[in-house]
């Protein structure tokens, strides 16, 4: 038996457009959207679809331009030893600064970049940039790595090429989502990384928001657990969030991992984290992410 899957999109005259060209374009945008959702779908044009398509187009052009004209730049947010408030290192956070000075933060473009043809050239630039800064400043720097890059076999050779004294000051931040898809593969990559001389540190980002399985903490060679900012924000008012933060810190300590609290914004939060003996703190209370020229080390 042959089965044919058909998707259809409908735009209506004059509501959705008065010319054939507009009606056709809007039906076409709608059709592209139905294909994402599956087959056998009939969809009417609506303004939300057009907005989404416009954003996609805008972001795609931005990423293309940023890649071709080298407009990516890192801002660096320090993190501190909780006890002494001395700088323990910096997290590199990407920005695009357009020719007119307009600054774009990653929430606008990172998902699209991670799914685009420009990802690998971006990640190459990112690793180079961060290793140069480690050399220049002599500090620890953390780099956020996308799931795609983590699973790319090229990661190990790239990391192997870094001078071992520099590599030792690099931290790779990955999220739990990476483990879920393929725990065995994750284990293999992390073990390969840890077999290097002076290996980079591994941090789990946004801990607590994903599946947060205890076995990952037990089995994977993770050095730092970054507690997600949503728990830090809520723990002052909400006893359950407080219990979660306390438990994560206690468990991480028993498993000999360091803990870092993200998004610390108030003195109250900081006081609580001090009493819980969290190793590092990071957040607007201490410093926002800063452009390179504002950093003196
Ligand atoms: P993330 O890795 O969880 O980074 C922390 C985010 O929280 C940053 O947002 C930072 O500016 C913000 N933040 C820091 N302190 C505070 C605080 O006290 N309060 C609040 N409300 N926010 C705070 P940003 O720079 O917009 O980055 C967003 C996300 O984009 C990052 O989340 C990370 O997942 C991703 N990202 C950033 N740079 C890169 C990169 O170079 N590569 C990849 N693959 N992802 C990146
Ligand atoms: Ca991060
Ligand atoms: Ca985070």
List its salient traits:
8-stranded mixed beta barrel, 297 residues, two-stranded parallel ribbon, TIM Barrel, binds calcium ion, globular, binds ligand C2E, 12 strands, alpha/beta
Describe this structure in words.
This protein has helices at about 20-35, 45-70, 105-115, 120-135, 145-150, 155-160, 165, 175-180, 185-195, 215-220, 230-235, 240-255, 265-275; strands at about 10, 40-45, 70-80, 85-95, 105, 140-145, 170-175, 200-205, 225, 260, 280, 290. It is an alpha/beta fold and about 300 residues long. It has two domains: about 10-60, no CATH class; about 70-295, EAL domain (TIM Barrel, Alpha-Beta Barrel), CATH 3.20.20.450. Strands 3-4-6-7-8-9-10-11 form an eight-stranded mixed β-barrel. A hairpin with a 5-residue loop joins strand 4 (about 85-95) and strand 5 (about 105). It starts with 7 loop residues before the first strand and ends in a 6-residue tail after the last strand. The model has no long low-confidence stretch (mean pLDDT about 90). The structure holds ligand C2E and calcium ion (2 copies). One calcium ion (CA) binds near residues 205, 206, 226 and 262.
């Amino acid at each position: 038996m042959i089965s044919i899957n058909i998707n259809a999109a409908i735009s209506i005259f004059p509501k959705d457009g008065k010319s054939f060209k507009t009606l056709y374009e809007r039906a076409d945008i709608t059709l592209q959207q139905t294909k994402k959702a599956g087959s056998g779908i009939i969809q009417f044009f609506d303004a939300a679809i057009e907005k989404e398509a416009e954003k996609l187009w805008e972001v795609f052009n931005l990423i293309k331009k940023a890649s071709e004209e080298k407009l990516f730049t890192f801002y660096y947010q320090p993190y501190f030893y909780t006890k002494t408030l001395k700088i323990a290192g910096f997290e590199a956070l990407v920005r695009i600064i357009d020719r007119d000075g307009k600054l774009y933060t990653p929430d606008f473009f990172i998902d699209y970049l991670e799914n685009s043809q420009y990802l690998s050239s971006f990640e190459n630039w990112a690793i180079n940039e961060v290793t140069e800064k480690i050399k220049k400043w002599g500090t620890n720097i953390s780099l956020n790595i996308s799931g795609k890059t983590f699973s790319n076999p090229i990661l190990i050779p790239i990391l192997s090429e870094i001078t071992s004294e520099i590599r030792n000051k690099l931290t790779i931040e990955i999220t739990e989502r990476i483990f879920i898809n393929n725990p065995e593969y994750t284990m293999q990559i992390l073990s390969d990384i840890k077999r290097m001389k002076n290996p980079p540190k591994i941090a789990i980002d946004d801990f607590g928001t994903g599946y947060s399985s205890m076995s990952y903490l037990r089995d994977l060679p993770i050095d730092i657990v970054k507690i997600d900012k949503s728990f830090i924000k809520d723990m002052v008012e909400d006893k359950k969030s407080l219990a979660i933060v306390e438990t994560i810190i206690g468990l991480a300590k028993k498993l000999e991992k360091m803990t870092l609290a993200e998004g610390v914004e108030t003195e109250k939060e900081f006081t609580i984290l001090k009493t819980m003996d969290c190793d590092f703190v990071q957040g607007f209370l201490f410093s926002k992410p800063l452009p390179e020229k504002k950093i003196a080390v």
